[in-house]
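Before any further analysis, we paired sequence with structure tokens, yielding the entry below:
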Amino acid sequence: ALTAGLGGMGGAQPLAATMAGVACLGVEIDPTRIEKRIKTRYVDERIDDLDQALAAVQASIAAGKPRSIAMCANAADVYPELVRRGITPDLVTEQTAAHDPLNGYIPLGLTVETALGAFRHEG
């Protein structure tokens, strides 16, 4: 499974995946949200390198053991890279707050800090 956004409602996606017996890669740009999900045991571990994260997911699948991996990155960067590599997950969910352009969506190429700074200067 592949999901984006681990804050709010999206935080339960990796837990739901492991409860269903599958491996999950959760992409989240805000590291504080990942820390919260690890602390509450909704996510098993954090791996920020895409190659290593994908290897961990593949190892989980091969072992038949559910596992959730959080990756601190922008889904807008990661998803196109997965397509470029020809990777097609069995299940994809998207739980980012893209409906909230001022607070919930970080555009391609921006960090959380850069995006928040840009939004503060506009207002």
